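so my prof wants the structure for this chain in the tokens format not the other one, which i didnt know existed until like an hour ago. anyway here's the sequence
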Amino acid sequence: MKTQQKTLMRKNSPCLKCGGKMEIEYGHAGTYWEPPEEPAYYCSECGNEPDDEEVDWEHFEEPFISLKQAKEIEEIRSELEDAKRIAYLPENRKKITIEDLFFGCPAEGDFHYEGEPEDVGNAWSCGDDDCENGWHESCQYIDLGREDGKTWFVVYEDNIAGSGDYQPVAGWDEREGDEITESVLSDLWFHLRGRSIDHFYGWGIYCLECAKTGEDPLNSWRFNQPLTTESAIEAAKDNLKYLKK
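here's what i got, hopefully its the right format
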């Protein structure tokens, strides 16, 4: 006696109950203003929601993610948000000192060190619907030194890597009459240690977007494995791990 094989739903399959059109909503993890929404795959006519086991996800056109993957993506996104928020809490910020900034530099006399731009910058989304990519990579370098007893420590940043438009964003230059104040040192925290936090957060969010779309807007996928939904999710988890350290 033959066992009847269960029919699985594929892309564009009608609802198994009423023949209506199936819709998918990926949901989101929620924000301060909005409650979270669970992902859902349902019939627009009768409301039937098939279980994951009833859907042949492998035969959906790429990129397509299962409801299980969609839920995992939003959970990781929420964890990234929480980890960044915690890392930025005032009580978790180690105060930056002049000694920290000039560690390893000559104690006396003139010197000048100009760093190289970062090999891997920070990924960030501009949120502009008219932007072709929507994602960008910022890079920075540091210029520091001492001349005739006057010091400088300046952070330069290029918001869109490759454009060569490096602008000073933090620091001081006593040659120009700047003073080294607590406000200046506090601001440097965001561009140094804070930037490290933003690095793992930004690339983690970027990986989740790649997982959802199957696309690499920055053309810089560098996470060991070829870009797939699963590899992008794993890369996001790795960034979350480093963010929590």
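also thought this was worth mentioning. The chain has a mean pLDDT of 87.
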